[in-house]
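To whoever is on call:

I kicked off a structure prediction for a single chain this morning and the downstream step that reads the tokens threw a length-mismatch warning. I double-checked the sequence; it's 122 residues and nothing unusual in it as far as I can see. Pasting both halves so you can look.
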Amino acid sequence: MAVQCIGLAQADPASGLWPVAAGRLAAVLLLLPHTWRHASHFRQPPGMLMQAAVIGADAALGLSLYLLAAHQQMLAIVVVLASLYPAIPTVLGLVLLHEKVTGKQMAGLLSAGAAIVLLSLG
């Protein structure tokens, strides 16, 4: 993910969304041989395939918005939001799945919160 974000930040604004499309294509081509080799492990009901397609579309949207932010020189905001990524699945697990919070998860959530405060203070 980091390599893709660095590459998108280097993209020429005139290239439009082609860097995102190229990155998504490269990811598919990279994973395709492994998926092909282990196809029996990846057989899923049609509903799961639709969920996977929605997740892929959301990822492409996120990368497109990151590209836009990089071209608009708004990386300070994007970096803070991207640093929250580990906190989002943890909070979703707590709220939706009623998971218990481990000490490491709590430390991570508190660290993410502290980082946001420190970054906003300058």
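Update from on-call: the warning came from a stale cache, not from the record. Cleared it. Sanity check on the structure: The mean pLDDT is 83.
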